[in-house]
Write a structure and sequence with these properties.
Structural class: alpha/beta
Number of strands: 13
Largest sheet: 7 strands, parallel
């Protein structure tokens, strides 16, 4: 008989993908749902009142707790320390749309502990099958979108709401660096327009940096992507799975391309296989209405 299953998340955006899956588990299979707040404050998490969530303030305390448990552990990111410290089996859920930046181009030994990859599409499934043929895969789509496809948003024809968002600045490769410094000048005029309402969003790892500038321009800050999905007519972003999540609801997106995004490099999906998910914008002036 299958043991109870534990979940672990260490970032706010992982939580959005984890909770819908956790809710679908039969109660007799639910172990513990753990959150470590060493990256994001617990105030960032919309915790449900009907689910028991165990919160730790640091990763070491979480690992100490997890070491004393057996059975499957479902994770949503690749934390080397966690994988190396724990002697238990993992299920890895890909928390985005399935790009292969970094991860798909090298072998990562701690994948040996993974029994199953739960993946969003067959494109990324084929990459994982080539790299880790010993691990089983299952394509589940994006469970966090189930709600939005069964409860479609009614798009208002008047008073459009535009949300602009930016990825956090990662030095993994040039394509993972934020376009925020490049497109920042365009926000002044975007915010001054009267034809629409503009909201400011960002990856949880950059939103604190963006917030003061958004507020300076009178842009309402929306930290929760669910609220973006609920209110927005149009979504503008540089590099995030949220581009594809928003577009899946039938609403338009604008894709921001920074000049340091290399055009001769393919990472799958966003770069550049399906960058045509929306109108591409290569210069700040292209964001400003004529």
């Amino acid at each position: 008989m299958l043991d109870k299953i534990d979940f672990f998340v260490e970032a706010r955006h992982y939580y959005d993908h984890a909770l819908p899956i956790w809710r679908k588990l039969p109660s007799q299979k639910k172990g513990n749902f753990y959150i470590s707040t060493h990256i994001h404050n617990i105030k960032e998490y919309p915790l449900p009142k009907d689910e028991k969530i165990i919160v730790f303030n640091d990763l070491s305390s979480t690992i100490k707790e997890l070491k004393g448990k057996k059975g499957l552990l479902v994770v949503f990111g690749l934390n080397k320390l966690l994988f190396n410290c724990l002697d238990r089996a993992f299920i890895l859920v890909s928390h985005g749309v399935g790009q292969t930046i970094g991860e798909g181009n090298k072998y990562i030994p701690y994948h040996e502990k993974c029994l199953l990859y739960i993946l969003p599409n067959t494109i990324i499934e084929n990459v994982y099958k080539r790299k880790y043929p010993h691990v089983k895969t299952y394509v589940a789509g994006c469970p966090k979108l189930d709600y939005w496809h069964t409860n479609p948003v009614k798009i208002k024809k008047t008073n459009p709401v535009i949300t602009i968002s930016f990825q956090y600045d990662s030095d993994l490769v040039p394509e993972t660096k934020s376009s925020w410094p490049y497109f920042k000048p365009a926000l002044v005029e975007l915010a001054s327009q009267k034809a629409w309402t503009i909201l400011g969003h960002g990856h949880p790892r950059i939103i604190d940096e963006l917030t003061p500038y958004y507020q300076q321009l009178g842009i309402e800050v929306v930290r929760d992507f669910d609220e973006v999905m609920e209110r927005s007519t149009l979504y503008i972003c540089d590099n995030s799975s949220t581009l594809y999540e928003f577009a899946s609801t039938g609403r338009p997106v604008v894709v921001l391309n920074a000049p340091w995004f290399r055009r001769d490099i393919e990472h799958g999906l966003r770069f550049w296989e399906h960058a045509d998910v929306g109108v591409n914008c290569d210069h700040p002036k292209e964001l400003i209405p004529k």
